Amino acid sequence: MMTTVERSEFREAMSRLGAAVNIITTDGSAGLHGLTASAVCSVTDDPPTLLVCVNRASNVHAALSANGVLCVNVLASRHQDLSNLFGRGGIPVHERFAGAEWRVLHTGAPALADAVVSLDCSIAQVTDVGTHSVFFCRVQAIALGAHPEGLIYFNRAYHDIAPRAHDVCHS
Question: Coil, strand, or helix at residue 155?
Answer without folding.
Answer: coil
